[in-house]
Design brief:
This protein is of the alpha+beta class. It is built from 19 helices and 31 strands. The protein folds into four domains: 117 residues, Beta-Lactamase (2-Layer Sandwich), CATH 3.30.450; 184 residues, Beta-Lactamase; 137 residues, Beta-Lactamase; 160 residues, 2-Layer Sandwich (Heat Shock Protein 90), CATH 3.30.565. Strands 1, 2, 3, 4, 5, 6, 7 and 12 form an eight-stranded antiparallel sheet that branches. The chain is elongated and about 160 Å long. It starts with a strand and ends with a strand. In the N-terminal section; belongs to the phytochrome family. Keywords: Chromophore, Kinase, Phosphoprotein, Photoreceptor protein, Receptor, Sensory transduction, Transferase.
């Protein structure tokens, strides 16, 4: 049988260095050996070349053999029990005796392969009690700290005591995965790295993904010679073995060279996962080869768990005081009352409006005016920012500590205001409130030039070899806004919106109050004019009629005929004026009627109307036919006026060709005025056989003073049907008319059923 290694010899090149396939190196580190078992048959499909060094069996003797045949049934059963107990990277290591030697093993599955990694058990392991004491002591240290930074410093110290590494660093990532040495404990003779920053390229994306999967990574000797992994036959030329979760996985040559350039001989890296993301690392460096027993590694890994379990708590403690102060300022500024637009001038001068998010300046744009205090841009610049963010955020909210990243045109002014919190106050314009922070110019100390992470030279690809202090001056960047500050600003913005809405409502109420007073005053004047027109003018008209009548009776013989004609016309004009004034008075009374509704029998109303119009009906030889009418809710005298006007109108506009006939009927059952109207109505129809009208005038005939015929043909003021419409509006009903010229007209009136 032929065997072939699966070493990935093209693991890194110029094209793939940013996506280097570090999870499939095809080799391991030599401080243990690896077996890859078929998950179903437990046949050995993969074996590292150094198996002979540990169990005196060469890979050629192991590949293709069954695990039980190689190591016995009891060892196989022990492995199966461990797998069935849920073994995935468990802190419970599996101890196996293979070929007469004791090994501590880690086991995991990878794409149908059970990967077993075995390391010789230390014959003189560190006592469990000693590890426990160190951990207990660390727990005591935890209770003595308040901030996350203090805790991380103790973790670095405790981890170094447990592991014995020369340097232990707590490495924290920013949002772009640039790293900062947040805490450190090291030998006194070593140059400290505390506070140094490392670019995100030092730990590329694929490496960060592996750190999220495999929480512990060990390199015992950076000068190790990789041990190839062999497959059981030559048909697996392109077969890869995913070693993402492997403890022994061989390291990227780029990373090995990086450690060489730093002078590091061995490393241990523990992932710090917070909210399912890589928050940071515990990075342990030793300046000579160093291995740790699996038990000690687990004890060190526990330090990482301590940190991640405390991140939320410690960050909360650090933010608590800020939160308390911002809420105190928020409560104070919420007590400020906005009574008018001028109140904004006093509001922005309130110290608490700056304290609620620890800003250096604030501006409020309202109704085109800018109100501001503190360190702010000019009024024109505030308007520009407000207009820009109204469009950029679609009138919502936004915050940044580097304004020029989203508003590059503002670069010339970033020194005064680099950070902003923006909240819109109106979805229809650029009204808003904006808090500002100035530029915080600072120096960032990088461990070497961050722009030179991977270098290509005549030797090929290599990581940067300079770790000399490289300083970067950060400009146009403000101190970041903290979560309590952002929440406090948002809370006040919503509160301010409510205050503004109340202010606008108050302004509208005041405007309507003044309009109402003006309307009341105008109505009062109109009532006075109406009183004059309907009362004071009646007397002169009666005198004109009386004198005209006397002249025509007593002085008829002495007055020329032309003068008599003029007197007759004057008397007729006075009669028309008197009729018009009477109708106007009736119209005004209906418009202002506030009488209480009561049950009204329309049959009784019609009998009264017919009695009053008896002479008119008789003179015109009209026939008025009234069928049974319903009982409705209404005002009796207005209903009497309604039907009197409608009947009189039908008689007035009767045809000379036939005697007037007027039919008044009620619908057999309630009806809707329109399909969309849920209300039911009693419908009364007044139908005549008079002169009718063109359909185009069906609505306009109800307008006051509207006449379809000249005064010489039909007498009237043009108020009657308008009066009927007002009466129906007063009863919350409707009136409509249809007609055909020379055939007649039909009026429909709708009374709501309560």
């Amino acid at each position: 049988m032929e065997f072939k290694d699966i070493v990935n010899r093209d693991i890194v090149n110029l094209e793939n260095c940013e996506q280097e396939p570090i999870h499939i190196p095809g080799s391991i580190q030599p401080h243990g050996f690896l077996l890859g078992l078929n998950e179903t048959t437990l046949t050995v499909d993969f074996c590292s070349e150094n198996s002979k060094d540990y169990i005196n069996l060469a890979h050629s003797e192991i590949l293709g053999e069954n695990f039980q045949e190689l190591f016995g049934e009891s060892v196989k059963n022990q492995l199966i029990d461990y797998i069935n107990d849920g073994f995935m990277l468990s802190s419970k290591l599996m101890e196996l005796n293979l070929a007469g030697k004791n090994f501590l093993c880690t086991v995991h599955k990878s794409e149908g392969v059970i990967i077993l990694e075995a390391e010789l058990k230390d014959p003189f392991p560190q006592e469990t009690s000693q590890l426990y004491d160190q951990t207990s002591q660390f727990l005591n240290y935890m209770h003595d700290t308040h901030t996350l930074k203090e805790l991380c410093q103790l973790v670095a110290k405790g981890t170094r005591q447990i592991t014995g590494y020369d340097r232990v660093m707590i490495y924290r990532f920013d949002k772009d995965y640039n790293g900062e040495v947040y805490a450190e404990d090291c030998r006194e003779d070593l140059e400290p790295f505390l506070g140094l920053h490392y670019p995100h390229t030092d730990i590329p994306a694929q490496a960060r993904q592996l750190y999220k999967k495999n929480l512990l990574r060990l390199i015992t000797d950076v000068d190790y010679t990789p041990v190839p992994i062999y497959a059981k036959d030559s048909s697996n030329d392109n077969k890869n073995l995913d070693l993402s979760l492997s403890i022994l996985r061989s390291t990227s040559p780029i990373h090995v060279q990086y450690l060489h350039n730093m002078g590091v001989g061995a490393t241990l890296t523990i992932s710090l996962i917070h909210k399912k993301e890589l928050w940071g690392l515990i990075a342990c460096h030793h300046y000579s080869p160093k291995n740790l027993s699996p038990e000690t590694r687990l004890a060190a890994q526990l330090q990482g768990h301590f940190i991640t379990s405390q991140i939320d708590l410690r960050q909360s403690n650090e933010e608590y005081e800020i939160d308390r102060k911002t809420k105190q300022a928020l409560n104070a500024v919420n007590r400020f009352s906005l009574e008018s637009p001028d109140s904004f001038k006093d509001l922005v001068k309130c110290d608490d409006i700056l304290k609620l998010c620890n800003a250096s300046g604030v501006s409020i744009v309202f109704n085109g005016a800018v109100h501001k205090c503190g360190l702010t841009p000019s009024d024109d610049q505030v308007q520009n920012i407000a207009n820009y963010f109204a469009t950029y955020t679609n009138n919502s909210s936004f915050s940044t500590n580097k304004l020029i990243d989203v508003f590059p045109e503002y670069g010339d002014n970033c020194k005064e205001t680099s950070g902003v919190i923006y909240h819109s106050l109106n979805v229809d314009n650029n009204d808003c409130i904006i808090w500002y922070r100035p530029e915080t110019r600072m120096e960032v100390n990088w461990a070497g030039d961050p722009a030179k992470s991977i270098i290509k030279d005549k030797k090929g690809l290599s990581p940067r070899n300079s770790f000399e202090l490289w300083k970067e001056v950060v400009k146009c960047t403000a101190k970041p806004w903290l979560e309590p500050e952002l929440m406090s600003a948002a809370a006040y913005s919503y509160s301010l919106q409510k205050h503004i809405n109340l202010l606008l409502i108050s302004q509208e109420e005041e405007k309507y109050r003044k309009l109402s007073e003006l309307l009341k005053e105008t109505n009062s004047e109109l009532e006075n004019i109406n009183w004059i027109s309907t009362h004071d003018l009646q007397e002169p008209l009666r005198k004109i009629q009386l004198i005209s009548s006397r002249l025509l009776i007593k002085e008829e013989e002495n007055i020329p005929e032309s003068v008599q004609t003029a007197i007759v016309k004057m008397s007729a004009s006075a009669n028309r004026m008197q009729t018009l004034l009477t109708d106007i008075l009736k119209y005004t009374r209906v418009k202002n009627a506030d009488g209480s509704f009561e049950d009204v029998d329309l049959n009784t109303v019609m009998e009264s109307v017919k009695e009053e119009l008896e002479e008119t009906i008789s003179e015109s030889n009209a026939e008025v036919i009234v069928n049974k009418l319903p009982e409705i809710q209404g005002i009796p005298f207005l209903l009497k006026q309604l039907f009197s006007n409608l009947i009189a109108n039908s008689i007035k506009y009767s045809s000379v060709e036939r005697a007037p006939e007027i039919k008044i009927t009620a619908s057999s059952k309630p009806q809707h005025h329109k399909p969309s109207d849920p209300t039911l109505y009693h419908v009364i129809q007044i139908e005549d056989n008079g002169i009718g009208f063109e359909e185009q005038f069906a609505e306009s005939i109800f307008n006051i003073f509207t006449r379809l015929h000249s005064n010489s043909e039909y007498k009237g003021s043009g108020v009657g049907l308008a009066l009927c419409k007002k009466i129906m509006q007063n009863h919350k009903g409707y009136i409509e008319a249809v007609g055909k010229p020379n055939e007649g007209a039909s009026v429909l009136i709708y009374f709501p059923i309560n």
